[in-house]
Predict the structure.
Amino acid sequence: MIAFLKGRLVEKTPTDIIIDCNGIGYQVHISLHSYSLIKDQEAIQIYTYLQIKEDAHTLYGFIEKIERELFKLLISVSGIGGNTARNMLSYITPKELIQAIAAGDVKTIQAVKGIGLKTAQRVIIDLQEKVQKLYGVEELSVAVNNTNAEEALSALEVLGFVRKATEKVVKKIVAQDPQATVEQIIKSALKSL
């Protein structure tokens, strides 16, 4: 197995790169997320995953280790191959995808082109527990230690908003301003909902 490549970046497109490693050029398929992290540097190190099939040996590359680990989890789900997993990581950042899986957010996963309702549900069913164990539920839940956020969520629920939809908005608000009062959180959330 090829764990990583370190060499000179020869060519870069949104879907793949070519790395010269001591005179051997490796074509590596990448996601748009990795593409955005690759600056126009000459020297590069990229984490890889080699997928071997009957008719092809395909090398996928990732700038971040977390993206590679998430890729491996995604391809373990029935019906998701390497290209589909790469597509998912192109549409959604690894962190957002982890949060969507941990929270059971089918809509976010289904928003990826080519992912239907059943596939999105299968991803959540197969990976939710693994993702929560690997990446910790505490950091993914909306407001574990923030009582203001909890009060704001309850108030928004009373106003008729669905909790799952408001959790994401409240989480962003609290991330930007951890000291926000209940009133400030509700006002900001109402503007976004």
In short: Confidence is low (pLDDT under 50) at residues 137-145. The longest strand covers residues 43-52.
